Amino acid sequence: MHLTNSSTAVTARHRRLLRDSALAVVCAALFGLLAALVTRHWHPLEQLDQSWIGELHTFARRHRIWTASVQTLSDIGGTVTMRTLLGIAAVWLWLIGARVLAGWVAAQTLVGWGGQWALKLAVGRQRPSFADPVSHAGGPAFPSGHAMASAITCAVLVGLVWYRVRRRGRIAACAVAAATVLTIGWTRIALGVHWPSDVVAGWLAAGFVLGAVTAVVELWRPGALARDVRRVNWRTRPRVQRITVPSVRSPRGTDPLGDSATDHPDEAVH
After folding, report:
1. How does 123-149 read in b/e, with b if 16+ C-beta sit within 10 Å?
2. 17 FRET partner, CA 20 to 30 A, in 59, 198, 239, 248?
3. What is the pLDDT at residue 102?
């Protein structure tokens, strides 16, 4: 029985490692392909980017209230907000003793932030330019930092609650996370500060960071993430107060088992 359980655990860890590695490899390959198309100025991609941006910019100029609402959503879902949420989660996990899981969350934040700027500087793509812009943003465009940060944050938070909720809760969490990521990515395009391919690149870069960091942690501390997940579940599960009912000694002649407390002194209530 012990060998069977051990083999099952190893197989589960290998499946998780393979899944995370595959996510990192696939996202890295797609990101590399997209980056190559951008740097080589592939005409169909440039035409698609410019057509989207042009139409949305015209709409934004004509509907100022809508534009202000989109700007508010973009500010709320900014990189500072997303990294603050991950920082709070990491501190909370550390305080309840889930140290490896806390480190995993912190690593996602730091690697995502550093990777974002490394990629931006490496590609060096210019942002969309308009004579009358409706919003402003600094730095290179590719990939979108908002898209990358929101995807990493929402994926991490869904992962933290995944084993705490049932099927409906998981569906709701995934729906909220997907809507958040899509909305934030859309605001960056609608405000004219990113090309659509920048946003897609941000999502792909986030997938690479999520998979790579998780795979590295699993290789460094095999099974530690799963143990910390169980620790979090145990620490946050609802507590049921135990009520002790005092035992009532049955009369010697009426005990249905024919025993009295004096026959078993270790069972007597003191």
Report:
1. bebebbeeeebbbebeebbbbbbbbbb
2. 198
3. 92
